[in-house]
Amino acid sequence: MVFSSGVFLFLFLPTAVAAYHILPARARNLFLFAASLVFYAWEEPVYVAIMLFSTVFDYVNGRLLEKEGMKQRTRKLILVLSVTVNIGLLAFFKYTNFIIDTANGIFGVSVSLIRLSLPVGISFYTFQTLSYTVDVYRGKVRAQRNIIDFGMYICMFPQLIAGPIVRYADIEDRIKDRPRDPEDAAAGIFRFVCGLSKKVLIANQFGALWDDISARAGTLPAAAAWIGALAFAFQIYFDFSGYSDMAVGIGRVLGFRLPENFRYPYEATSVTDFWRRWHITLGVWFREYVYIPLGGNKKGLPRQIFNMLVVWALTGIWHGAGWNFLLWGLFFFVLLVIEKTFLLKLLKRAPAAVGRLWTLLAVLFSWTLFACDDTGLLLRYLSDLFGANGFFSPSVLYYLSSYGAVFAVAALFSTHFPKAVAERAVGRIKNRPAAFVIKAAAALIALALSIVFVVGDAYDPFLYFRF
After folding, report:
1. Is residue 191 pLDDT above 90, yes or no?
2. What is the distance between the alpha carbons of residues 274 and 335, in angstroms, rounded to a whole number?
3. Is there a single domain that holds both residue 320 and residue 293?
4. Is residue 322 located within the same domain as residue 253?
5. Distance (Å, rounded) from C-alpha 134 to C-alpha 227?
């Protein structure tokens, strides 16, 4: 992580939020920019230079694109330069060693890998800077003239390292003017606590279980392998949606309305529906900046399928430099084409339970492709899933008895029901101060439990920090 959880929760976050609200409005963007650089540089000071370069580079590109009298051909060259440099930086840091390793295996050579670590969050802030340049070129947003304000947008710490992917248009109206709203700030704090609870109280428990089960790949009965897949499915959902909730919550405390990134994806009734609910901002980005420019669905079915192939291949490798990520993206491409061509019509006629079962099985299988980034591990785990070592053993009973309650809680809170019930219950309380006290008490209890787990639990990874 950039910060340890304890340093972030008990030192950086309260200090940054308090200082932000104490400062006059004209100084807040400068403070957020500086605080975000400190946040990012805590353990990776060298890579601040990369992020600052991207910031200055696309700030200048945006200004040039709006320069009066600029010929259209020159504007296109500036856009191509921006895309090339940004994607080039991302590709160099993320895929160089993967390409070298692949070439070594294919050609039987032994070229040394480059001693290079992946800058945290580069996949996210690269997409943000790219979307800004493209939108300025298209005339959808005005170029930002204040480099401090632009730097604050690119580097804003709540969503800097794991999203959501915030396009400039999402927050353009709040760059300069963010009025203080105590109710909005209170809602933001509550949202942050919900996200922290998801991460610490649920995701981490399943992360430990997945590590234990995946370490036994090649010897697992099918039932245990599917339990492991379900554990990873809950881990990545509560980990990533928890981080997104925390980012959105902090954003609201600071006066921003960051875009939502999840909408109960495990309630989806098709794979198509799943991808309208999972990592929403990434889906929007690929739709707006890849799929539609390629022609979308306007040039016939064969071209649409080709466009989908490009998008899903890129979606896969965006997540990581590994064949398993490409395979994961292509797996969803195949499923979405099947649904597009005929299956969606059948699912719409069938009971909703049929669509949910189809989607759950497809997504669970996909997470094994995603999680097993070693080819040998992936092959062993897939053989376990399909019964190479039998279907049942006493270990299955151990996992069910030890984690059954956690699975039940995760299954419940991956749906909209808890939120709907809580909102209905609070809504029935006519006394607004009493309703606020009840909500605040619930948040304090959840925060206290989370702090206990943060202090006492050494297992605390954020999965999406490595993408």
Report:
1. yes
2. 12
3. yes
4. yes
5. 43
| End-to-end CA, the chain | 12
| Given 21, 279, 319, 416, the catalytic residue | 319
Indicate if 416 belongs to the active site.
Answer: no
pLDDT in tens, 263-284: 999 999 999 999 999 999 999 9
Amino acid identity, position 337 = V
What are the tokens at 106? Answer: 């294919």
The rounded distance, in Å, linking the Cα atoms of 358 and 170 is: 34
The per-residue pLDDT for range 32-75, each reduced to its tens digit, is 999 999 988 876 788 889 999 999 999 999 999 998 888 899 99
**Residue span of the structural domain in which 419 resides:** 183-466
Q: Sort 456 into a burial class: Cβ within 10 Å, 0-12 / 13-18 / 19+.
A: exposed
- CB contact at 8 A, 127 and 55: no
**Extended strands (E) in 91-222:** none
Q: Are residues 348 and 419 in the same domain?
A: yes
Residue 275 to residue 279: CA distance in whole angstroms: 7
Number of domains in the chain: 2
Same domain, yes or no: 110 and 221: no
Residues 6 or more apart from 234 whose CB is under 8 A from it? Answer: 202, 203, 206, 407, 410, 414
- If asked whether residues 357 and 394 sit together in one domain, one would say yes
pTM above 0.90, yes or no: yes
In angstroms, the Cα distances linking 107 to 70, 96, 98, 103 are 48, 16, 14, 6
Instruction: Locate 424 and state its tokens.
Output: 């209905």
In a 10 Å sphere around its CB, with 0-12 CB exposed, 13-18 middle and 19+ buried, how is residue 71 labelled? exposed
Residues 91 and 224 both lie in one domain = no
Whether residue 1 has pLDDT greater than 70: no
> Is residue 303 scored above 60 in pLDDT?
yes
User: What is each CA distance from 341 to 262, 301, 305, 334, in whole angstroms?
Assistant: 26, 9, 10, 11
Same domain, 145 and 215: no
Look at residues 178, 199, 217 and tell me which one is the last residue of a structural domain.
Answer: 178
Q: Which residues pair with 388 in a beta bridge?
A: 390
- When pLDDT is averaged across residues 199-222 and rounded to a whole number, the result is 93
Answer for the pair 446, 193: CB distance below 8 angstroms, yes or no: yes
Whether 240 and 199 have beta carbons less than 8 Å apart is answered as no
| CA dist list (Å): 113 to 91, 109, 189, 333 | 15, 12, 44, 31
The proportion of the chain whose per-residue pLDDT surpasses 90, expressed as a percent, equals 67
Which of residues 133, 153, 178 is at a domain's end?
Answer: 178
pLDDT: which is higher, 142 or 40: 142
